[in-house]
Amino acid sequence: MKPPQFWYGEPASLMDHLTAFASRALSPIYAAMGARRIAKAQPAFAEPAVICVGNLTLGGTGKTPVTIAILKEALSRDINAQALSRGYGGKLAGPVCVDTTRHFARDVGDEPLLIASAAPVWVSRDRVGGAHAAQLHEADLIIMDDGHQNPDLHKDVSVVVIDAAAGWGNGRVFPAGPLREPVDRGLQRADAVVLMVPEPDFEPDYAGLGLADIQIPVLRAWLKPTAPAPDGPVVAFAGIGRPEKFFNALTAAGARLAETYSFPDHHEFTRAELDQLRQEAARHSASLVTTEKDFVRIPATGRDGVLAWPVRAVFAEPARLTALVQQALDAAAERR
To answer: What positions belong to coiled-coil segments (predicted)?
Structure first.
């Protein structure tokens, strides 16, 4: 879905005003349903340690790059780390281990395909079933991509990823705002926070984010390109939670943006849309660039002329990431 204007700014039209006003009556119901589900749940335990990488808002905060960074940290220590995902946007219910040679985004979702470049990924709508599948394949550590609001599987460490620049938007719970649950309630269940900043020198509003007096670790991280921006003019397109983050990152890397095109998160690109984007790039004599997450959703036959611009999560204090992995392993050892 594409976030409504009023989630992160003032309503842009009379219809936006009316929608914002009407949706406020539904927010308490949504929040109460989520709280009730969590309160009544009896989480199942898996033998491996479980780290959940989630967030409190709808839309992109950087969960997937953080998940990949944790996986790589664990693997560098010879820990058998595997990922677990619901596989949003895919048709397979699982549990199924992602195979990049035969699975497509329509099968398992876009995020699992990205994560599979780093480690084995289990897609399962039943998180408990997926965790048991990883356990049968000798996982020591499971990194669950998303699921902070899912109470079915016990988490040894629950990490909340926050976009430091976007914050909580208008501070309201869905559908009146971008929050999945009230901030204080979500942070109470967190064991650590990863604060994604747009650049290393960015100074977050800790008080405004509710982090001024928080008693859990707060790790700072940012996304760093692993390839230079294309030379010459660029036509950029993205169907992620906040496409403007991608466009701003390209500009910061020195790209000259001729045009930008935003699509809803997890958008499935049609042949006509891709042809039109290629025509726009040709009109500007520009490179056609998108995110890795968008690229994996494009059919192989439609990728001609499209460049994927790769990024990775970089942590200000890598030792704290190591400590997070160890915290989960220690917690799992204590409960066994």
So the answer is: 267-294
100 is in an annotated binding site: no
CATH T-level assignment (fold) for domain 227-309: Rossmann fold (3.40.50)
187 is in an annotated binding site: no
Residue ranges of the chain assigned to CATH 3.40.50.11060: 227-309
Does 254 show up as a binding residue in the annotation? no
Q: According to the annotation, is 270 in a ligand binding site? A: no
Q: pTM score, two decimals?
A: 0.92
Flag whether 64 is marked binding: yes
CB 314 within 8 Å of CB 225? no
Residue 130 annotated in ligand binding:
no
Give the model confidence (pLDDT) of 213-270 as tens digits: 899 999 999 999 999 989 999 999 999 888 888 999 999 899 999 999 999 888 999 9
62 is in an annotated binding site: yes
Q: What is the CATH number of domain 40-223+314-335?
A: 3.40.50
